[in-house]
Every structure is written in C-alpha cells, then in structure tokens.
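Q: How do we represent a protein-ligand complex in a form that can be generated token by token?
A: Start from the inputs.
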Amino acid sequence: MASPQPRRWTTEPRETFNADTARKFSRYSGRNAAQLADALPCDCQPYVDILTFGRWKGLDRAPAKGQKAHHIACKRLRQYTTDDDPETVLTASIKYVAHVFCRCQTVERRGRKGGRR
Ligand SMILES: [Zn+2]
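Then emit the structure tokens for the protein with zinc ion bound:
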C-alpha cells in the first residue's frame, strides 16, 4: 500500500479577525452552544458574547488576568493538495479544542496600539 502523500496546506492554520469578522462563523454547533449556555452563570450568548481570544482581540477586547477559558471541541475545514496531484484541492476536517471566553471575562484593550513597551 502506498504511504499517504504529505499534505500541502493552502489555508492558514489560524484565522485573524477584525471588528467585522470577529462574529462571523462558517459553521455552528448547537451542542457546543448548549454546553456553554449550561456552563456559564451569566446570560452571555454563544457566538455573540462567547468568543475565542483571537476574536475578542479583533473586537479590541481581551480576557482579564486570571480568567479561565472554557474548552469546546471544534472542527475546522482546511484545504490542501498533494504532490501526486497538485491540481486537485482537497478538504480535510481538522479537530481541535477551542478556548473561549464570555464577555464578562473580558476587558477593553486600552492603549495597546503602538503603546506600552
Ligand atoms: Zn458572561
């Protein structure tokens, strides 16, 4: 049996977000949403007030010191090609754990732009 060809990824491992993209999601998990709603004592809404560090950063907020993330199981789709057939773009579903924070856990990131050293 031929060994599998190494994957040449054509998409970035992580997205970066800004204020426009921080709350745009390509997929939705009802199970994760329900799990978070159950776990949190507050009324924060999944996909609106419960976001990853990178998405909060895009909204100029960050988790306050000492806050613990909630862990949720996620999948992300990434495109790749192989050396055997570089023309054909394939899609892989990658499982990962996302660390999310609700709005109550975050603070505004003040004066970080070109600021303190
Ligand atoms: Zn909250």
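The radius of gyration is 18 Å. The mean pLDDT is 90.
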